Amino acid sequence: MKRLIATLVLLLAAWAAPSAEATAVGEAAPPLSLPDGAGAQVSLEGLRGKVVYVDFWASWCAPCKRSFPWMNAMQQKYGADGFTIVAVNVDKKRTDADRFLARVPADFKVVFDPAGASPAAWQVKSMPSSYVVDAAGRVVMVEHGFREERAAEVEERIRTALKAR
Q1: Nearest residue to 85 (alpha-carbon basis) of 122, 131, 125, 121
Q2: What tens digit of pLDDT does each residue of 18-45 get?
Q3: In 38-68, which positions are buried (b, 16+ CB within 10 angstroms) versus exposed (e)?
Q4: Measured at the alpha carbon of residue 163, what is the angle toward residues 128 and 52, in degrees to the nearest 5?
Q5: pLDDT (tens digit per residue) in 82-106
Q6: Are the beta carbons of 88 and 71 closer than 8 angstroms?
Q7: How many Å apart are CA 27 and CA 17, to the nearest integer?
């Protein structure tokens, strides 16, 4: 219950915060630098030149369970073309994320932000929230939630960003 309340407070704070231009389409993506499962830092700046799909997720998020297989397919399909996924876990407890990943494996980069600083900076309003960032570091698409009926449109945005590299 405490986790649910803390998550709702975080999401409410992000929703109520003044609109951030940084997550608007066409604007520069906010900074992102977080540790992966092995403790190595993964940064958006370090991925400059690639098209990056930044996905914010949590273990309790039902749509996240459906989005992971799709993200695995996108990473497999476009990884060799300069595409990478960075999935930002926002669970307070790493064990919650680890249990989720044991059931729903990720074939892409997973980083951890238990403090919740990055969702606030990116103005995340729901789980999952995803951002396509082009090779120059600009946001070219914002997607709140995951719906299978929109997967083809999101994939087309990824392809377009890859062609523009």
Answers
A1: 131
A2: 444 347 898 999 999 999 999 999 999 9
A3: eeeebebeebeebbbbbbbbbbebeebeebb
A4: 30
A5: 999 999 999 999 999 999 999 999 9
A6: no
A7: 18
- Termini Cα distance of the chain: 45
Classify residue 149 as exposed, middle or buried by CB count within 10 Å of its CB (0-12, 13-18, 19+): exposed
Domains of the chain (ranges, CATH numbers): 2-164 (3.40.30.10)
| Single pTM value for the model | 0.86
**pLDDT reported for residue 99:** 98
Going by DSSP bridges, is the β-strand pair 51-57/83-89 parallel, antiparallel, or unpaired? parallel
Among the listed ranges 20-24, 62-66, 76-80, 84-88, which one has the minimum average pLDDT value? 20-24
Residues whose CB is less than 8 angstroms from the CB of residue 18 and which lie 6 or more positions away in sequence, other chains included: none
**DSSP letter string, 44-109:** TGGGTTSEEEEEEE-TT-HHHHHHHHHHHHHHHHHGGGTEEEEEEE--SSHHHHHHHHHHS--SSE
Contact 44, 127 (CB under 8 A): no
